[in-house]
Amino acid sequence: MSMHGGGGGGRNRVSGADRQAQKAQNAAAPRIPHLLRRISELFAGHKVALAITVVLVLIGAALSVVPPLLTQRAFDEGLFPPSGGPNLPRLATLVGLMLAVYIGSALLGVWQTWLTATVGNKVMGALRVRLFTHLQSMELSFFTRTKTGVIQSRLQNDVGGVASVLTNTISSVLGNTVTVIAAFVAMLLLNWQLTIVALILMPILVIAQRRVGQVRARIATKTQESLSDMTAITQETLSVSGILLSKSFTRQKAEIGRYADENANQIRLQVSQQMSGQTFFALVSIFLSSIPAIVYLVAGWLLLGGTTDVTPGTIVAFTTVQARMLFPLLGLMRVALDLQTSSALFARIFEYLDLQPAITDRPDAVALAAEGQVARAGVTFDHVTFRYPDAPEESRPTLDDVSFRIEPGQFAAFVGPSGAGKTTVSYLVPRFYEVAAGRVLFGGIDVRDLKQESLVSHIGIVSQETYLFHATIAENLRYAKPEATDAELEAAARAANIHQTIASFPEQYQTVVGERGYRLSGGEKQRIAIARVLLKDPEVLILDEATSALDAISERVVQAALDTASRGRTTIAIAHRLSTVVGADVIFVVDAGRIVEHGTHAELLERDGTYARLYSEQVTSSSLAAE
């Protein structure tokens, strides 16, 4: 549909300039105030599980440094006691304690993993639903200016990208921190001189870690941007419409090339993200792994100098503690890097959650009363002026000071040149957009004073571009009324002149229509859409060029169904083919955003104005086509 005028139904591919603008927007990571506090608030509903997790982590971390201390006792009191040969009873007791600690730690680890995985995935799932729910509340203009692939990327790639952070961060940070602290204390208790040797280069490692984290955060932002582009390409080209387009213009190779180029960029970014910091971690691993050898050397030097009474058990226990400190320390550094990397993803998620819908219910908004009130009241435009949100300020309004009244139960048609603004009328009645000036009255009430859900519940819309889900005919019909019975489905289908066609299918109402209904003809899809609206049974019916894309035979069948659907309802028909509205109670002629004529078909022909000219042109075109 044209967003700055009326009737067209085409959808354009995003231009190169738009794509570059989107890339620039994604590359500039949004700044979200109090980001860490907002992330922590995601876990507010899981306090008990988190408390248990914290206790398990603390116990597990504390237990992790017990075996090295027992190792010291095993060496000094069991294997090599001062009294002479090995003390087997003492050694057996210490070994038994070590095994008990290992078994207890393993069981606690299983419990802790289950808790963190459960909490993390529940938080991630709730975040995804929260984001989806918020997007459902956004106004129509948000979706017309945002690529579907970008929205899908926020829901899938961004939320999925922080999953590991949500599931592992708490246990990793707490467990590794406690383990490192406990190991450090144990090392001090064993020998303070060796502890200084082991920890002397830690500040250098911390500084290097921060620099690596900043690099990885930048790469992560570019990676998510590339994923958004790949999702958009997939959505555009692998939909039925996209496949038809590429095959029609033999552009499959070009589309493959476009996807392959972005895939190569994604591979490069993923490799860069994986490799960023690997040299740093390799140096850290080499350094920490070489500490035992250095400890042996320093211990020998201290023993020769007589400045320490270190025992073999102390040396073995110290190197064991130091080795146990290696992985938690690396884990803390990796968590810090992951947090820096994921901050961009969290910021992108919260950026969407912070979007404010342009159209919301007023605090004092009311619901429409009993059914039938709207049909009795009609629809009125009172000096309405409207310009689409993304239109330049200097451009003319799409609708400029438009006023009209559609009487209760009346069939009103809006006709005019393409881009005149007639489709916009159909957007303003259900308040899909907000007027810039004037009022739209629905049932005698300003639509801004009504709850939008209540307003839309009284309106049925049949558009030119029929949308059917990849589901059965029955499921598509029940989208309007989930509790509808089979008899109600059949009644709606009969009224829409589609029941006989459905009955001829082998699976009848259980026939799967295919993506966007591509297993059906245009006329069949349109009549199913009409049946769906009839099942809703609205008081006001909006027909937005519902037959303009059909051939002459399908148009006659669908038009008969529309005539049945509009009977007894207030009907607003946006028409391109004037032959479909010659019987309308009133015809409004829209040109350049204004109502330039109105009246019946006969009255407008008699005036010999814009309508008469348009009608004459269409009659001439039809005659030439028939010849």
UniProtKB/TrEMBL annotation:
One of its GO terms (biological process) is oligopeptide export from mitochondrion. Coiled coil: none annotated. The chain crosses the membrane at residues 48-70, 91-114, 181-208, 280-303. The keyword Zinc does not apply. Residues 1-28 are annotated as: Disordered. Residues 51-341 form the ABC transmembrane type-1 domain. GO terms for molecular function: ABC-type oligopeptide transporter activity; ATP binding; ATP hydrolysis activity. Signal peptide: none annotated. It holds the Pfam family ABC_membrane. Residues 1-11 have a biased composition (Gly residues). Residues 379-617 form the ABC transporter domain. InterPro entries: AAA+_ATPase, ABC1_TM_dom, ABC1_TM_sf, ABC_transporter-like_ATP-bd, ABC_transporter-like_CS, P-loop_NTPase, Type_1_exporter. It is a multi-pass membrane protein. PROSITE patterns: ABC_TM1F, ABC_TRANSPORTER_1, ABC_TRANSPORTER_2. It is found in: Cell inner membrane. Belongs to the ABC transporter superfamily. Siderophore-Fe(3+) uptake transporter (SIUT) (TC 3.A.1.21) family. This is ABC transporter ATP-binding protein. It comes from Cryobacterium tepidiphilum.
